[in-house]
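Incident log, support desk, overnight shift.

02:14 A customer reports that sequence design results differ from what the structure should imply. Their input is reproduced verbatim below. On-call engineer (initials T.W.) acknowledged and began investigating.
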């Protein structure tokens, strides 16, 4: 029995759920750190406008909202319940599927995810979305693949699961 579960875990990679203590610590500290970071970015922007700062550095730092954990997301991530995580991902994939199909991305997608440019097999270029691991921790790749296909998306998942990409389904766009 142990050998089959070990074989399944190798065939279907999954990132472990985050630490509940770590989630609670971040949830409490984010209410101080994110405003402090916002003020620091405003000061940096003034330095860019009037001094030696680099605008590229500022743009790379504009990611504090992506790390924000709302009370609802906190409860979801603390639950460690696969069914709740799958339902949440299903709603997110439905929303992202519509945006990828229209090739128009809202503020929520550009803040929380990374919009990427992908080359299609026919030589054309389309935008896709890269998900950060915090969005799919505890969910096996097979579930992610099933949800992606349900919403007419192709899943690009490297073996280390650093960042999972949602791409337009090639057959739908050819």
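02:41 Re-run completed on a clean worker. Output:
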């Amino acid at each position: 029995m142990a050998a089959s579960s070990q074989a399944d875990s190798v065939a279907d990679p999954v990132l472990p759920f985050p630490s509940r203590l770590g989630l609670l610590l971040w949830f409490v500290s984010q209410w101080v750190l994110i405003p402090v970071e916002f003020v620091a970015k405003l000061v940096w922007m003034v330095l860019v406008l009037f001094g030696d700062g680099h605008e590229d550095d500022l743009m790379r730092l504009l990611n504090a909202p992506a790390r924000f954990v709302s009370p609802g997301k906190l409860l979801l991530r603390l639950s460690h319940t696969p069914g709740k995580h799958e339902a949440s991902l299903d709603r997110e994939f439905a929303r992202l599927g519509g945006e990828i199909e229209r090739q128009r991305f809202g503020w929520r997608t550009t803040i929380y995810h990374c919009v990427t440019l992908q080359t299609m097999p026919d030589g054309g270029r389309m935008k896709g979305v890269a998900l950060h691991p915090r969005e799919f921790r505890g969910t096996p790749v097979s579930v992610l693949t099933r949800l992606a296909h349900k919403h007419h998306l192709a899943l690009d998942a490297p073996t280390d699961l650093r960042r999972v990409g949602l791409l337009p389904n090639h057959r739908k766009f050819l």
